[in-house]
Amino acid sequence: MPPLPMPPPKSSLTDAPASPSIRAAILETVLTKRAARSSPPAGVVRIALFFALVVALLFAVDRAIGHGLRKVETSSFGVTNRIVAGKVNADIVISGSSRALSHYDARLIEQITGQTTFNIGRNGSQTDMQLAVLKTYLQHNTPPKLIIHNLDLFSFVTTQEIFDPAQYLPYLDEPSLYAGVRRVYSDAWKWKYLPLYPYVVADMRFAWIVGLKALAGFHPPEDHRQGFVARHTAWTGDFAKFRAARPEGVTFEIEPQGVRDLAEIVEICHRARIPLLMVYSPVYHEMRDLERNRDEIFARFRAICEPFNVPIWDYSESPLTQDRSNFYNSQHLNAEGAAAFSTLLARRLATTEISSVRVTQHTGTANTARSTP
Amino acid sequence: MLFNSLEFAVFFPLVCALYFSLPYGSRTPLLLIASCVFYMAFIPAYILILALTILIDYFAGIYLQRTSGHKRTALMWVSVISTCAVLVVFKYFDFFADNLVGLATYFGWQVTNPSLDIVLPIGLSFHTFQSLSYVVEVYRGRQKPIDDLMTYATYVMFFPQLVAGPIERPQNLLHQFGEKHDFDYARVTSGLKRMAWGFFKKLVVADRLAIYVNDVYGSPQQSNGLQLTIATVFFAYQIYCDFSGYSDIAIGSARVLGFRLMENFKTPYYATSIPEFWRRWHISLSTWFRDYVYLPMGGSRVAKPRWYLNLIVTFGVSGLWHGANWTFVVWGILNGVYLVLSLATIRARDAVMGAIGFPAESVQRKIVQIGSTFALVCLGWVFFRAGSLGDAWYILTHFWQDWDFNNVRTEQFLLRQMPVAIGAIAVLELGQLLHARHPIPAIFSQWPLPVRWMSYATLMLSVVLFGIFRKGQFIYFQF
């Protein structure tokens, strides 16, 4: 700041061994020698060549990361890799948000129903990205006997910012996923065509390290079992904070685009003649008091499903919702809660029989009765 | 336009290519056009404000030469006040209005707040100060007024240092627009290397640390003492790397074009005292305040109490320059008080050090001095970064409470980012220490070309992979 009548420091860490003048002299000598070597045109060519090398390196590393991520056999990358490789081909497919991902234990459902089951739920996704994932699944795999789509009160809210974008990055050549991403980010072309761009701009979780490690044969720990992720987590304080912040409750938006996205899921299944079952999985009962437009949203669900005779199984009043030990926050069941819910659902499916879901579609008998498990 | 944007990655090579291709006479107009494009990438209409400042000071410079005596002094003041008026309206009007309304309300008077609620033009304080220094230097007779409006406008608007300095003096920069800058491979590559170091500081260190700092300082009441401490130390590195990184890119890009800008930072966190810190931190601003505020008030050539007052007032004004908020004013005054205490206790501290067995020039003493200076600076940064004086006070009184080592991460800053953040700081320190002993470019130059190129390319790739590219603005743009 202002000049102080103090001498400059006699020595410091920065100028102890070599004084600035000596350093400058060394640098000057080096620069002069270099200057003598390079005439302007040659210098320009050298700089251009160097940056060409950098660009080539960026492309090479980008390809290596993408290739590595598509080789991952575990985690969410492993799930997507199986989907796009057409290696799932399950009888029952569960789609939806993180609530689908952590509520439907595919192995339990498979055990009880005798039908191969796979969970393609996506963490932090809204219906638009769930639709993109479902379309990708159907593009690469044989049509399932049943699709279970999990509903949320935020099903009609569109994505403003993609959660954990890395989960989609290696698959931008998949038309449905790319279209989904483009709807959220108009500059998604940069993700697709600029080397490393998405890994450094969109991803904060160092997915590129996962990709490079996978090239060397190191895969992340497996946390997805047939797509299902069990949350071994006790009740957190999230709900208390949420309720304190919004004691008056919350109104969930109903965006026209969100409505169209859910309707498209129904229409896709109808066209492909795949039986579809909508399930509203358990939510902790105290949350009910804060849901201000629940009836309106359920009316929309019914308006979308009834024309196609798609049943809605609503577990809002299941006894599971009364017991906090089944949840880790108001929206998500923990591993124990998920096991209990999956068992209930699978037993009901087993008794209903998947084929009968198809029958109800044809007979026009909409099964919108609330679940009484 | 941000330095860390794709737009700049296209803009800068294009400007360089045109600059070296055009005849000398067309280069200053090119730089002016490029600077306008650079500035208008933010809010285009604000270029009119810049134009107004330029015109006021340009004509003031010409008329100052033609006048003398009181008329000359009056003209200088008219120019200074007119230029500052722009700054006051855009930067301080709402602040003063809010405070006056608050005061009126306190006394029970009903006053409507005349808040303008306008967006601050980016870098306003920087180019205003650069423009002011021209007028004052012309007034003092140290700089001949320039009659070429285009050159003067380019001096104020020169895009590498337009929005965040270094705040140049006319004696250093103005004449360079008349020089012939040929393409010089050594100089160009030296500039590019300086830019690369700046990008490392900004993208890898500053912007990653910013994620943690923003989370914690955004709601300090939700954070434990350990998080508050980490965030404060991180902010010290964030602001240093953000601002010195910007300066490196500015100096480097100007060097590519053949211009020499003044150094703005000299490893300030290695300072062994507060006065030394301020000789190493934001040098272009410090010397500006020294020359145009502190010395005109009498500097140190007055009675001791007045000298101390001069220091505190200068730092208080410097704080206000940084932002229209009481937190900045307190930060400035606190640093003024630090400086006064530092000067007043030199002998006592020396005696204490000697008594505990740390003789002058010993490593132990240096470590203690560097550590204590850093700690004091960090305490000051709390006021600088906090959203309000209440937040700052909360942080200062909760540093030591509730250190929960299981709760270090924040909402946005996952634990896996911590090794990268700490590693980046380590690389920064290592680079600075190494460079102080042997200039790193000189070390690289001894290697064979393929090894050297691969090393540079790998380092650039590392900056790309470990950097944060989320359109993070430079902190000092807001000033």
DSSP strand (E) fraction of chain B? under 5%
The percentage of residues in β strands of chain A lies in: 5-15%
Topology order of chain B in helix (H) and strand (E) letters = HHHHHHHHHHHHHHHHHHH
Number of distinct helices of chain A: 15
Largest sheet of chain B: none
Strand order of the largest sheet of chain A: 2-1-3-4-5
Give me the count of strands of chain B: 0
Residue-averaged pLDDT of chain A, rounded? Answer: 84
- Secondary-structure class of chain B: mainly alpha
Strand-pairing-aware structural class of chain A: mainly alpha
Q: Say how many strands of chain A there are.
A: 5
**Overall mean pLDDT of chain B:** 88
Task: State the low-pLDDT regions of chain B, or none.
Answer: none
Our count of helices of chain B gives 19
Share of helix of chain A, binned: 40-55%
Q: What coarse outline of chain B follows from CA principal-axis ratios?
A: globular
Radius of gyration of chain A using CA atoms only? 28 Å
- How would you spell out the order of helices and strands of chain A? HHHEHHEHEHHHHHHEHEHH
Commentary on this structure:
Chain A is built from 15 helices and 5 strands. Chain A is mainly alpha-helical. A 5-stranded parallel sheet of chain A has the order 2-1-3-4-5. In chain A, strand 4, helix 13 and strand 5 form a beta-alpha-beta unit. Chain A is globular. Chain A starts with 19 loop residues before the first helix and ends in a 10-residue tail after the last helix. With 479 residues, chain B is mainly α. Helix content of chain B is 69%, strand content 0%. Chain B has 19 helices and no strands. Chain B is globular. The model of chain B has no long low-confidence stretch (mean pLDDT 88). At the A-B interface, helix 1, helix 2 and helix 9 of A face helix 8, helix 10, helix 11, helix 12 and helix 13 of B.
